[in-house]
Write a structure and sequence with these properties.
Blueprint lengths: L3 H14 L6 E3 L1 H8 L3 H13 L3 E4 L5 E4 L4 E4 L6 H7 L4 E11 L3 H7 L7 E10 L2 E11 L15 H9 L5 E10 L2 H7 L6 E10 L5 E10 L3 E6 L13 E6 L5
Antiparallel strand pairs: 1-3, 2-3, 4-12, 5-6, 6-7, 7-10, 8-9, 9-10, 11-12
Helix pairs in contact: 1-3
Length: 255
């Protein structure tokens, strides 16, 4: 059961998620009265939310607590799951399993995983949540022969953790491709957005410690809540190209 402080944090975050960046939530006195809590307890929660980039506190006659325009970033150079990215930024990560099945792979999946038409894949579709709000829809596929019993595991957390602890697989690298797409009616319904809303599609092939492809996934991130940033180092025009570090950021939710 959550503590009073955690319950207060969740209530304020829910109001932030339902609001528009730049909107004033109120003054400390107004919020303390609204949530029926002490100023000291409120300040403790507000300090944590400000550090996480969810709010701005402005001092002065026209000041108060505002929904932040800031984004929280996740380094795409590391192969980490969405829960780790969200938790590191102060969000309560959640997962809803939409569907699971074992079936025949399509040509794109066969090529990505290096399997044949006679092989099968495990398919897991899940919705990722940040403080209860949907931010992404992911479809992950794995070679069925390599991971017997995978669908019998608890699929609400990190799949990479399951692969490592149960099957001894370590995700060593991932090749990702990013493009802008429009939400289908079904995708829009699941993510709580309007059809044809902007989505960022991240297609990923993950490799294990033996450089064997072990996962092919298609992740759809809400365009109104996601920003991609890439940092590349310049080494001169005659230097060989080097790898770039990329990141994804979660933006404040629009109303």
């Amino acid at each position: 059961m959550p503590t009073q402080t955690e319950e207060l944090r969740r209530r304020i975050v829910a109001e932030i998620n339902a609001g528009v960046p730049g909107t004033k939530l109120g003054s400390e006195r107004e919020l303390a009265e609204h949530y029926r809590t002490s100023r000291s307890s409120l300040r403790q929660v507000l300090a944590a939310l400000e550090e996480a980039g969810l709010i701005d506190r402005v001092i002065g006659r026209s000041g108060g607590i505002f929904i932040s325009h800031a984004q929280v970033q996740r380094n795409l150079a590391d192969v980490v799951g969405v829960p780790a990215f969200l938790a590191s930024q102060g969000y309560v990560a959640g997962t809803r399993v939409v569907s699971t099945k074992i079936g025949a792979p399509d040509p794109t999946t066969r090529q990505a995983l290096g399997i044949t038409v006679d092989d099968f894949v495990i398919e897991i579709q899940r919705v990722r949540l940040a403080d209860g709000s949907p931010i992404s829809l992911e479809l992950a596929q794995f070679p069925a022969d390599a991971f017997p019993g995978l669908l019998e595991q608890q699929l609400g957390g990190s799949l990479y953790e399951i692969l490592e602890t149960r099957y001894g697989l370590v995700a060593s690298r991932a090749d990702e491709h990013i493009e802008a797409v429009s939400a289908t009616p079904e995708e829009a319904k699941i993510l709580g957005i309007k059809p044809k809303s902007a989505l960022l599609l991240i297609t990923r092939v993950t490799y294990d410690q033996n450089d064997t492809p072990c996962e092919f996934s298609r992740d759809l991130f809400r365009g109104d809540r996601t920003r991609l940033a890439v940092t590349a180092q310049g080494r001169g025009v005659s230097a060989q190209p080097s790898g770039a570090a990329a990141s994804v950021a979660l933006q404040s939710q629009a109303g």
